[in-house]
């Protein structure tokens, strides 16, 4: 009976473990999978811990002297030089998300960073239709996630393609908080599925420029004493080496590798995750590439020798592995332009043909020099292998943004001006231009420096003073015509369903400040883009437009959500405002967006199509300057703590349309345990009743044991009290009850 009892107890614990263990260690088997028609969507749950971390930490042991150590778990090598970074689950790039269209993505973000820094995560390229509260923009769609707290993002993966996630607060993207998001389709819905043989999870290529120190320090030095902001190196999937001016490596950490088999055709996905005006040119030795998608949207195949990509952009291409044989290696070369052209910044990865034989061919990592006079052709995404973005052809049907006249046409002048920006100058003590340092220019749109609202616009519009808002028609004319610094909440409001044309003009060709503009919540059609050999102004654009010299492409214009407006040029974009909410539209250069080169596209929900905030959605805002009067109501953002204290869970999610809502543990219980990317394991329905039955059986068994022990004890007491010769009986009873009295077998 004892052995049976122990078996039952063990089985109960095993089954209880199956109930409690709601996350598997490896989500790849669950969500990274081929996608099929009519397949049931999966709920892909992930737990992320955001931390301060270090390249070449103790997790790397003897890396790079021992190259194998560089491949250890939690070893982040970077370019081979130690520096402080920010990571998710001690990975850089952070955990990738690879799902099928229609899957539910649920990410629990625990903020364990030091210095009490708030954070949000933006899902770059995902429109968040029906889920605007999940867009992840601090003080626009949500409050920042405080230190030692957590937040649950939950939404449907409803627009397929190559996207990425990144921190959308401060400089955290530039220090390592970014990763890929790939949403695949069934072959029947992928117009290019017949063109490639494999779309492998390992063929995602994340490119970023890399600084010598935490970027907030670089930012502060740049704007306060005109320090250098130039990056030190380039990384490919978080790996690389530091090179000297001659192109020779000075560190020897491993390079990223991409494996192929001879004769097969592969789909690669490239993501620009940089932070500076540093377009990157990617090429593969001896191989041509065929572009098939841009920013997640399919285009007609375009054969090129190389791709130029700005921060925020994504390109999918097909590579035909027909130039090598077993064991061959070819360099994947990435060279930098503009800010990354100093010292000829470069990086390499390896394309390896699989097989048992590995050839010892010498790889030459040094890059050819990039001619300085290529700026006019390569700047600001005006070319893709000499092919303008506007000449790419969309494979999607024309929508009404192309077939209808715009309901709104907004002229947006991107200027970089010398003004007394009080964030960097004190007009009385050290005014702009007379402080002993070179002039520091302020990037603006229509002479306006955009600022974050004091409370999240999407959920607490009533808490924002209407006087905080502005646009070109309401702002003081001196903001644009004179050297007056003007700062406000720059908002453009349009009606649901309106066709909007955005004419973006970058005034000066002298600043080489092309601006990769990214739209949240929408994709747009690029109907015109060009760069002139003179300073561009809005008035000049209007004159050229009246003369018929601005040619808009109104058929099969490519969809994008990020496009670089060329300096000394223009880009004309059209979109349908069919997604209610407040959507950030901003330059993706961190040093520009952080000083206000942005605006908010407000699409009010007059038709009731936008869901309300999720239950218990956090609220925040400024504390009143005057104490609340007893006779008046508390401000709408003030929520007193109940008797029971604040809600123990700081994770929030929509109740609808999801019926299987789940609460996670608090961030504090998780912050000391780095967690892998995880996806929910489904508990079989039979487990709970079986556990209940076994528990009942065990209760009965324990009751039997207890009764027999009591009975034996009473018999022994009776024998001693009568003084009879019961030694034999007593010894028999002891021998019979010994196994029951000692469950451990002693």
TrEMBL record:
Q: Where is this region: Disordered?
A: 612-656
Q: Which Gene3D superfamilies match?
A: Cupredoxins - blue copper proteins
Q: Which GO terms describe its biological process?
A: iron ion transport
Keyword Signal attributed: yes
List, for all copies, the residue spans of the domain called Plastocyanin-like: 74-187, 203-355, 471-604
Lineage top rank: taxon = Eukaryota
A GO cellular-component term linked to this record: plasma membrane
SUPFAM superfamilies in alphabetical order = Cupredoxins
The UniProt transmembrane annotation reads: 685-707
Query: Record's family?
Result: Belongs to the multicopper oxidase family.
Spell out the protein name for this chain: Uncharacterized protein
Organism field:
Littorina saxatilis
Give the source lineage, highest ranks first: Eukaryota, Metazoa, Spiralia, Lophotrochozoa, Mollusca
């Amino acid at each position: 009976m004892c052995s049976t009892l122990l078996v039952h107890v063990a089985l109960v614990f095993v089954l209880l473990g199956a109930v409690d263990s709601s996350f598997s260690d490896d989500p790849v088997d669950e969500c990274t999978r081929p996608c099929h028609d009519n397949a049931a969507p999966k709920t892909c749950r992930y737990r992320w811990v955001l931390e301060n971390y270090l390249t070449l930490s103790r997790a790397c042991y003897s890396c790079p002297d021992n190259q194998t150590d560089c491949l250890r778990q939690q070893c982040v090598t970077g370019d081979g030089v130690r520096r402080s970074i920010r990571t998710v689950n001690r990975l850089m790039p952070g955990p990738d998300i690879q799902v099928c269209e229609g899957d539910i993505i649920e990410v629990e973000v625990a903020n364990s960073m030091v210095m009490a820094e708030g954070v949000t995560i933006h899902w770059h390229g995902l429109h968040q239709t029906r889920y605007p509260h999940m867009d992840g923009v601090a003080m626009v769609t949500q409050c920042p996630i405080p230190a030692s707290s957590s937040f649950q993002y939950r939404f449907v993966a409803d627009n397929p393609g190559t996207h990425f996630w990144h921190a959308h607060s401060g400089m955290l993207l530039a220090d390592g908080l970014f990763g890929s998001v790939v949403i695949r389709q069934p072959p029947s819905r992928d117009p290019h599925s017949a063109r490639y043989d494999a779309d492998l999870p390992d063929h995602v290529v994340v490119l970023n420029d890399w600084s010598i120190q935490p970027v907030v320090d670089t930012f502060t030095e740049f704007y306060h004493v005109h320090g250098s902001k130039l990056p030190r190196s380039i990384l490919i999937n978080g790996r690389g080496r530091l090179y000297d001016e001659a192109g020779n490596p000075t560190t020897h950490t491993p390079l990223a590798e991409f494996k192929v088999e001879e004769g097969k055709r592969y789909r690669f996905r490239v993501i620009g995750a940089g932070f500076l005006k540093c377009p990157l040119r990617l090429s593969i030795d001896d191989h041509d590439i065929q572009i098939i998608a841009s920013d997640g949207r399919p285009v007609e195949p375009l054969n090129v020798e190389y791709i130029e990509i700005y921060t925020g952009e994504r390109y999918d291409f097909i590579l035909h592995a027909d130039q090598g044989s077993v064991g061959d290696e070819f360099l994947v070369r990435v060279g930098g332009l503009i800010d990354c052209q100093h010292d000829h910044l470069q990086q390499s990865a390896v394309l390896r043909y699989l097989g048992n034989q590995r050839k010892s061919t010498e790889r030459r990592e040094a890059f050819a020099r990039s001619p300085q006079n290529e700026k006019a052709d390569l700047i600001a995404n005006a070319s893709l292998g000499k092919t303008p973005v506007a000449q790419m052809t969309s494979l999607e049907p024309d929508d009404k943004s192309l077939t209808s006249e715009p309901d709104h046409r907004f002229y947006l002048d991107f200027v970089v001006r010398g003004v007394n920006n009080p964030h960097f100058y004190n007009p009385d003590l050290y005014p702009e231009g007379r402080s002993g340092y070179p002039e520091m220019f302020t990037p603006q749109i229509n002479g306006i420096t955009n600022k974050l609202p004091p409370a999240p616009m999407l959920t607490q519009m009533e808490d924002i003073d209407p006087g905080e808002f502005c646009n070109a028609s309401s702002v003081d004319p001196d903001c644009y015509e004179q050297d007056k610094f003007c700062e406000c909440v720059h908002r453009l409001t349009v009606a649901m369903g309106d066709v909007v044309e955005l004419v973006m003009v970058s005034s000066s060709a002298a600043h080489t400040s092309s601006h990769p503009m990214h739209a949240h919540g929408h994709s747009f059609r690029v109907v015109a883009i060009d760069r002139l050999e003179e300073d561009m102004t809005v008035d000049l654009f209007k004159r050229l437009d009246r003369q018929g010299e601005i040619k808009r492409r109104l058929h099969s214009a490519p969809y994008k959500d990020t496009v670089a407006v060329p300096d000394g040029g223009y880009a004309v974009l059209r979109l349908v405002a069919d997604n209610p909410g407040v959507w950030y539209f901003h330059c993706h250069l961190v040093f520009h967006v952080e000083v206000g080169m942005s605006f908010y596209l407000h699409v009010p929900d007059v038709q009731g199509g936008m869901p309300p905030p999720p239950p218990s959605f956090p609220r925040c805002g400024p504390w009143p300057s005057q104490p609340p009067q007893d006779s008046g109501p508390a401000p709408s953002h003030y929520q007193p703590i109940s008797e029971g204290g604040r809600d123990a869970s700081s994770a929030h999610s929509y109740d609808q349309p999801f019926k299987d809502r789940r609460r996670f543990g608090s961030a504090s219980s998780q912050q000391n345990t780095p967690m892998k990317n995880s996806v929910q394991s489904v508990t079989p329905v039979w487990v709970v009743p079986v556990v209940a039955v076994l528990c009942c059986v065990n209760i009965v068994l324990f009751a039997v044991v207890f009764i027999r022990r009591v009975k034996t004890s009473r018999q022994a007491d009776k024998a001693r009290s009568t003084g009879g010769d019961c030694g034999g009986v007593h010894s028999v009873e002891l021998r019979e009850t010994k196994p029951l009295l000692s469950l451990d077998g002693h």
